[in-house]
Specification:
By secondary structure, this protein is an alpha+beta fold. It is built from 16 helices and 21 strands. The strands form five sheets. The chain has an eight-stranded antiparallel sheet. Strands 1-2-3-4-9-14-13 form a seven-stranded antiparallel sheet, with no helix packed on it. A two-stranded antiparallel ribbon has the order 16-17. The N and C termini lie close together (about 10 Å).
């Protein structure tokens, strides 16, 4: 397991054992597009390719996801237009960490291989190929179709954009069949729906079936014989199909882009590719979004912060700079940053940390000077919101007031998810200011950091006394512990212990006791995961684990405490349970159902694992 994170090829992931009680999730989709594209091309395990656009409005509420349009091309096999056998489908991935070469399906003696390629560019076309091979010992007739549809992207895959449900191609097919039949045949081999097009080519001449919105193909194959169909799928001018040229260009593009990652493990490169694919041009203007992943077009500053750090450490600082440029667009007159898609009270602190850390790591004095005033104003805004002694009421002085701190609607003094984040922001801003000789701002932020630390440390002493003499160490959601029952019943995230542990508020000798408390609560597991997220949905229940966020913080805490065994255990658990055999990362897993794989590909999940792998390399593991 330890070798895997550093040197073993991605293919070795498939051979890892999975302990009793957990299943490894399956890769259900992968991106095809390159970085900085304004189109999202996705290959789905059921034999479907979808193509959407990255629509963005700074007023997030004006871009409802439900209205997002996309086009799709779907492979159907046999005279009965059946779904390919998606459960036993095999992903075919090249060794160079570029996006998947394709999917392989079997039905009797026939094998269909669906491949797609998208070279780098803002408005590239998907070039694809379907090859059918007779693997039997007798002649066989192949019959298959490539169906097309246009509609709301959410109607192509159940649960889109986040897909917090089990992958269900049968249901997806029903939704697909219900879409309006809007494609028309323009001439032989070319079909269109408005600006969207599919142009067919290759060895087999198909026939357009308008009633069923598909191009049909058939051929008699000798044993071992293969016949291929190609198609171009895009928006705008209908280019000719040329899969071979597109694949060669795509591989050349990725080879050039990954030069700086030479010598890294295949797994780390696969994670890096996912991160880079999440950087997208908006369809209007020159805005680049550091997308979080999945089918979302939104940006979460709390997720972006570690993406930029990982990119800088890997030598991709220009992408980190683009993330900073995007976040800085949201500077408000009062000094705060926002609004973002799901406003968190810590958004301003996350932006401050992201930009200050980038400037420090990249030694980018130009960026620092350009935005120093906005950063200083943001630091002042954070300080201004801290509850003052005379105005506290039921609140605790020195902390942020009750504000929305996560995607949960629960509002309280969420000290781990606001105040610790603020403390880190002051620390990062001070460090950057010191580097660039800004003594005034450095001194101001260092003083605020120290005051925050005294405040939180003082509050922790109450819980240290409460835990005295026990073999567990409990940290409540709220600093006064009053809302514990209510927050538990509302399934509030148990991410907070890791925040305290990583920032040194839990002493080295208390870490094991805190871990034991989480184990007894059922929020951690012996294998090394720390983020069970109980769901009110019966089919999900207590099987859901929100992975990488809590584990990254606990990995940091164990590393600082010199407990390399516990840190390694955490990384190993993520590699076993949160990374598919093909090296893709999602946001959550279901311990007993491999088809639960929301928010994949996932930029911040990949970034956290990258940072853990880099820390492991540095420690000599």
């Amino acid at each position: 397991m330890r070798r895997l994170a550093g040197t073993v090829a991605v293919a070795a992931l498939a051979a890892l054992s999975v302990r009793a009680g957990f299943v490894r999730p399956e890769t259900t989709r992968t991106y095809l597009h390159g970085p900085l594209s304004e189109r999202m091309a996705v290959m789905w395990r059921e034999g479907m390719v979808t193509l959407g656009e990255v629509v963005h409005e700074d007023a997030w509420k004006d871009m409802p996801y439900a209205a997002q349009q996309a086009g799709g091309v779907r492979l159907l096999v046999g005279a009965d237009d059946a779904l390919p056998d998606w459960e036993s489908a095999r992903w075919d991935w090249p060794d160079d960490a570029t996006p998947a070469d394709g999917l392989v399906f079997r039905r009797g003696p026939l094998e269909w291989r669906l491949e797609a390629a998208v070279p780098f560019g803002r408005r590239e076309t998907v070039q694809a190929r379907v090859t059918c091979v007779n693997r039997g010992k007798e002649p066989a007739r192949t019959v298959f179709a490539l169906a097309v549809r246009t509609g709301k992207e959410a109607e192509f895959v159940k649960g889109t954009p986040d897909i917090y449900c089990f992958y269900d191609p049968v249901r997806n097919r029903k939704s697909w069949d219900a879409l309006a039949k809007t494609w028309v045949c323009c001439n032989r081999g070319l079909v269109r729906d408005g600006t969207r097009f599919v142009r067919f080519g290759g060895e087999l001449e198909g026939a357009w079936d308008g009633a069923n919105q598909c191009q049909r193909f058939a051929a008699d194959l000798k044993p071992g014989e293969a016949r291929a169909v190609t198609f171009a799928f895009g928006i705008g001018h209908a280019v000719q199909p040329d899969f071979a040229a597109a694949r060669a260009k795509m591989r050349a593009d990725w080879t050039r882009e990954m030069k700086r990652a030479e010598g890294r493990s295949p797994l780390l490169k696969r994670l890096l590719v996912q991160i880079l694919q999440c950087f997208a041009h908006a369809t209007e203007g020159d805005c680049v979004l550091p997308r979080q992943g999945g089918q979302q077009r939104y940006v979460w500053p709390g997720e972006t912060v570690l993406v930029t750090e990982a990119l800088s450490k890997l030598g991709y600082g220009e992408y980190a700079k683009r993330a900073c440029d995007f976040l800085l667009r949201f500077a408000k007159e009062d000094g705060s940053f926002g609004p973002f898609a799901n406003n968190w009270a810590s958004d301003t602190a996350y932006v401050l940390t992201t930009v200050a850390r980038y400037c420090r790591m990249e030694k980018d004095a130009v960026c620092w000077r350009a935005h120093r005033a906005a950063l200083a104003k943001a630091a002042d805004w954070i300080e201004s919101l801290r509850v003052k002694e005379g105005d506290a009421g039921d609140n605790i002085p020195g902390l942020f007031p009750p504000l929305k701190s996560t995607d949960s609607k629960k509002v309280f003094q969420s000290w781990a998810m606001t105040d610790i984040v603020n403390e880190v922001a002051f620390r990062e801003t001070a460090a950057a200011a010191e580097l660039f000789g800004d003594a005034e701002l450095a001194a101001k932020c260092r003083a605020r950091e120290r005051d925050y630390r005294r405040t939180i440390s003082s509050l922790m002493e109450r819980w240290r006394r409460e835990n005295a003499g026990k073999d567990t160490f409990r940290i409540p959601f709220a600093p006064d512990g009053r809302l514990e029952k209510e927050l538990r019943e509302a399934h509030f995230f148990f991410l907070h212990p890791g925040e305290f542990a990583a920032e040194g508020y839990v002493r080295a000798d208390e870490l094991e006791r805190c871990r034991k408390w989480l184990l007894e609560e059922g929020q951690a597991c012996e294998e090394g995961l720390y983020g069970r997220h109980v769901s009110p949905k019966p089919e999900l229940g207590d099987h859901i684990w929100y992975t990488t966020w809590a584990e990254y913080r606990w990995f940091t805490a164990w590393t600082k405490a010199g407990r390399r065994d516990r840190a390694q255990e955490t990384l190993d658990a993520l590699l076993e349970y949160s990374v598919t055999a093909e090296g893709l990362v999602g946001e959550r897993i279901h311990s007993e159902n491999k088809w639960f794989w929301p928010w994949s590909p996932n930029a911040s999940g990949a970034a956290r694992i990258v940072l853990m792998m880099l820390a492991q390399e540095k420690s000599g593991e």
